[in-house]
Design a protein that fits this description.
Strand content: 15-25%
Shape: globular
Distance between the termini: 26 Å
Helix content: 40-55%
Number of helices: 12
Largest sheet: 7 strands, mixed
Number of strands: 12
Radius of gyration: 18 Å
Length: 279
């Protein structure tokens, strides 16, 4: 009998792309039966704090709070290399980055890496938490002065009459010279180490298969691409499913360590011991 495992990931195009081959049987699942649990990243972060899922996507911000329960897999990362979460406002608002401390900003969750990065940039600011896929509309109708966008909103905000104030991935790259590590896959520490490694290989194979069959995988990912055409979905997938997703590599590992170090130094995260990646 195969071992049943809960595998959590977000209902967005890049995660759909990553797990397409595994979910549809195009790559084998070995001794495991994976039950795919699709929930927004804030919910997955919260579930990780309770250890409810065997394997799950989490924000790197959230990982600082769950590393006693979970180990970080070397595959499945989402990196913004010079681009990333964006703060937007209504077109013609006149807002600049320095103005953001004095306005109310809609955010997609306080455990997201986007929120951590914005706290590192601004310090304290007035905010309200909203579902990530409603933030553009919330800003457009005036419920908030600005909004913090993750996922495909980074490509579609201009269709809603919004303008870019700051790209946090660009800001981070200029500050550190590193990509901004947004999310990763983690696995519960009560799973045996050899099984962790086998599962890591299976997930890597799913990502590699998608990259090798890109057009078909993108068409599948379109089912979760809100307000996006195929070319936009392909561009979005390319931003967040790439060589970093197959393996963090030395640069990606340094980026994770630097983000967590700066978050801890700013008093926003607990101190993080030396990072370990399941390879």
């Amino acid at each position: 009998m195969r071992k049943h495992l809960l595998l959590g990931h977000s209902p967005d195009p890049d995660d759909a792309f990553m797990f397409w081959a595994l979910a549809t049987g195009r790559v084998g699942s070995g001794a495991y039966e994976f039950e795919h649990v699709l929930q927004d990243i804030q919910t997955l972060n919260e579930r990780a704090t309770r250890g409810e899922l065997h394997i799950t996507a989490v924000s790197i911000h959230a990982y600082a709070h769950v590393l006693d329960r979970y180990a970080l897999l070397s595959t499945g990362s989402s990196m913004g290399d010079g681009y990333g979460p964006m703060v937007v406002a209504r077109h013609g608002s006149g807002l600049r980055t320095g103005d953001l401390r004095g306005v109310r900003i809609a955010v997609p969750g306080t455990m997201t890496t986007a929120f951590l990065a914005l706290r590192l940039l601004l310090g304290e600011f007035d905010h309200g938490t909203e579902p990530f896929d409603t933030i553009e509309a919330q800003v457009a109708c005036g419920n908030y002065d600005a909004g913090l966008l993750i996922h495909e909103g980074q490509l579609t905000y201009h269709n809603k009459g919004l303008e870019l104030i700051v790209d946090l991935g660009q800001w981070w790259k200029e500050l550190t010279g590193l990509p901004l590590p947004l999310g990763g896959n983690v696995i519960r520490r009560d799973i045996a180490r050899d099984e962790m490694e086998r599962i890591n290989v299976i997930l890597r194979q799913s990502i590699a298969y998608g990259l090798a069959h890109r057009a078909e995988a993108v068409r599948h990912a379109l089912r979760w691409a809100r307000d996006m055409h195929e070319d936009e979905a392909d561009r979005f997938v390319g931003m967040y499913v790439n060589h970093f997703t197959l393996d963090y590599g030395e640069v990606g590992r340094r980026a994770v360590a630097e983000l967590l170090r700066r978050g801890s130094q700013a008093g926003l995260l607990p101190p993080v011991r030396a990072l370990e990646f399941v390879a």
